[in-house]
Amino acid sequence: MHEKGERCALRPGNLHSADGWEEVLKPVMARYADRHLMQVFRADAAFAISKLYKTLEAEEYYYAIRLGTNCVLQGRIAHLLKRPVGRPPKGVKRIYGDFEYQAASWDKPRREVAKVEWHRGELIPRVAYVVTNMPMEPDGIVRFNNQRGTAEQHIKEGRQSIGPGCPAWAWPKTKSTCNFTRWPTISASSCKALICLQTWLIKIGARVARRARAITFQLAEVAVSGDLFNRILAAIQRLRAPPAPS
Q1: Phi, psi of 104 (to 5 degrees)
Q2: Across the strands, what pairs with 115?
């Protein structure tokens, strides 16, 4: 599978996650409108927006979007929130709910999937809700929505790696983090995480040797080559910027 960045934008850090979703999402949807592909969308609870649901449904997209909890949702799965009878399981006990739900701001009821997890040693279950139109079993929908965490891990990795004072021991340990560095042409075998960009391109240590006629910088063998540096810059320049506001 080929991975690429579809669109990017530099925004203030105090904006809501879903601010400007139309300017980012609609051009991407238009670009794929004429391709005969199954179109799917997944997102966290910040994108639980009625207008977004209607936009995706109008374009015949399948979607799975997290939804925050409320008293109505808790009431619909009250029978799943009772502690299981008998000895606690050694592993995690998962129970799923599947029902229709309509929030006050929605134009119609939509399918809601609930996942209830009972963990050993915990008195209260962990609950997650997903609003969806996907024709799948509840456990498959939840797994599909959870895969959005890969992209969120990349975002977290980027913030940790290029932020001020980032410690080298903060390298993400998951295998999926290699995708972030593979995308700007650094292979997974060359780098464990985006922190390499910081240590190779920004924090390059060198020994300075001063002589009568020259000053020599002695770099480590792991220092990035000029060719790789140019390829990284070229990859950054190929990023698509969001359209200018009309």
Answers
A1: -60, -30
A2: 96, 128
For the chain, give every domain's residue range: 21-147, 151-237
Helix locations, the chain, DSSP H? 21-31, 50-58, 71-76, 138-146, 149-162, 178-182, 195-197, 226-237
C-alpha to C-alpha distance for 156 and 172, rounded to whole angstroms: 9
Beta bridge partners of 43: 65
pLDDT tens track for 157-183: 666 655 554 443 333 333 333 333 334
* End-to-end Cα distance, the chain: 35
pTM above 0.85, yes or no: no
Q: Are 47 and 21 in contact (CB under 8 A)?
A: yes
> Could you give the count of Cα atoms lying within 13 Å of 180 in the half-sphere of its Cβ?
24
Beta-carbon-side half-sphere exposure of residue 51 (alpha carbons within 13 Å): 8
